[in-house]
Specification:
By secondary structure, this protein is an alpha/beta fold. The protein has a domain of about 100 residues: Rossmann fold (3-Layer(aba) Sandwich), CATH 3.40.50. Helices cover about 50% and strands about 15% of the residues. It has six helices and five strands; from the N terminus they run βαβααβαβαβα. A five-stranded parallel β-sheet has the order 2-1-3-4-5, with helices on both faces. Strand 4, helix 5 and strand 5 form a beta-alpha-beta unit. Helix 1 runs parallel beside helix 6 and helix 2 crosses helix 3. It is globular and about 60 Å long. It starts with a strand and ends in a 9-residue tail after the last helix. It comes from Bauldia litoralis. This is YtoQ family protein.
């Protein structure tokens, strides 16, 4: 079985690439998907495709709706949803993705630093795992997909 893993959230660091590289190194049968991570393309897709808007609200609304087609579809198809909350921005979209995935009964892994524990307590409560590093996410995937513990030697 090929597992489908949706990587939601923060777009300013290479955490997605780290997880994908770790999964490849572990030879995991996994297919990753994600939102559009080109910030400008994501923000402007609605007006680029459907036409300009004079009001910023409608500019953003067009883009958000087009992005939602991708996000909803990929979350619905995912076996596991990993949601990363970074340090620099609030990532309201990531919180929404986590809630949507929870409503669908998806397995959720949340990824954030310890200092965000209190602010994300409700999101963490909906998750099946809360990790602090991309390497921990790879170890979770290795365990749930292949039943192996990273670094564990069976004696």
């Amino acid at each position: 079985m090929t597992w489908s893993v949706y990587l939601s959230g923060e777009i300013h660091t290479d955490w997605r690439e780290t997880i994908a590289a770790g999964a490849r190194a572990a030879d995991l049968d996994v297919r990753f998907s994600a939102p559009v991570t080109d910030h400008a393309a994501s923000d402007d897709c609605g007006v680029a495709i459907l036409g300009a808007e004079g009001d910023k609200f409608w500019h953003d609304a067009k883009g958000a709706r087009l992005n939602a087609i991708r996000t909803r579809t990929l979350i619905e198809e995912a076996d596991i949803v990993v949601v990363r909350f970074g340090d620099k921005y609030k990532q309201w979209n990531a919180a929404f993705d986590a809630g949507y995935a929870a409503a669908l009964g998806k397995a959720i892994v949340v990824l954030h630093q310890p200092e965000h524990q209190h602010a994300l307590k409700e999101v963490d409560a909906a998750a099946l795992a809360v990790a602090e590093t991309p390497d921990q996410v790879v170890a979770i995937l290795l365990y749930v997909i292949d039943g192996k513990l990273a670094g564990y030697k069976d004696t």
